[in-house]
Amino acid sequence: MPATGADPCSSEPDLVYVAEVNEDTDLDPSPAQLAWFFALDLDEQVQLIADPEMALPLTLVKRITTLGGTASTAYWVGQPPGPLRLTPHHARLLNRRRQHLLEWWSGLPAAVQQKFLDNRHGEMQCDLRGFALEAVTTPTEPSSMFSVGPFSRIFLEWRATTAENA
């Protein structure tokens, strides 16, 4: 959030916002840890954000493992293997990031949530910048518009899909 009294549409470089995260690497994983996730199609990313611990369809397992991710299964000796899922580490990374975004989302007024959903495929108006958890701007090109970061974009698509199916 901008400082009290700050112009939310200011394009000064010191007003560029980034995700506010704690030092937990599960919440803010390195790009290499989830490179496979960002290489998936948006629909596949939305599926995984919706339920990182879901039983994975074989087609998604193939895509994930081809892109460098891993899937695993657990079962008792003498019993058939269970369904393939993301490894617990990868599921935890996505779960924690989703939970962080859900907490941010629940603190937004309904009208602001709707503006984010309406503009999720493009740039956001400057009046939303103070509400953005992560905003991506180019300080060398002053603009009143901004884009949300990749996790936020996927999260917004998930929320929009959830709202459409409600």
Q: What does this molecule look like?
A:
By secondary structure, the protein is mainly alpha-helical. It has one domain (13-164). Helix content is 39%, strand content 5%. It has helices at 35-38, 42-50, 58-66, 88-106, 110-118, 150-164, and strands spanning 71-72, 85-86, 135-136, 147-148. The strands form 2 sheets. Strands 1-2 form a two-stranded antiparallel sheet. Helix 2 (42-50) crosses helix 6. The radius of gyration is 18 Å and the shape is elongated.
Q: Describe the largest sheet.
A: 2 strands, antiparallel
Q: Say how many strands there are.
A: 4
Structural class: mainly alpha
Contiguous uncertain segments of 5+ residues: 1-26
What's the quaternary structure here?
Answer: single chain
Instruction: Output the strand order for the largest sheet.
Output: 1-2
Helix count equals 6
Mean pLDDT: 77
Order of helices and strands: HHHEEHHEEH
C-alpha termini separation:
30 Å
Output the radius of gyration.
Answer: 18 Å
**Proportion in β-strands:** under 5%
How helix-rich are the residues, as a percent range?
25-40%
Instruction: Count up the domains.
Output: 1
Principal-axes geometry comes out as elongated
A few lines on this structure:
Helix content is 39%, strand content 5%. By secondary structure, the chain is mostly helical. The chain has one domain.
Question: What are the defining features of this structure?
Answer:
single chain, 166 residues, mainly alpha, two-stranded antiparallel sheet, 6 helices, 4 strands, disordered N terminus
Task: Describe the protein's topology.
Layout: H1 35-38, H2 42-50, H3 58-66, E1 71-72, E2 85-86, H4 88-106, H5 110-118, E3 135-136, E4 147-148, H6 150-164
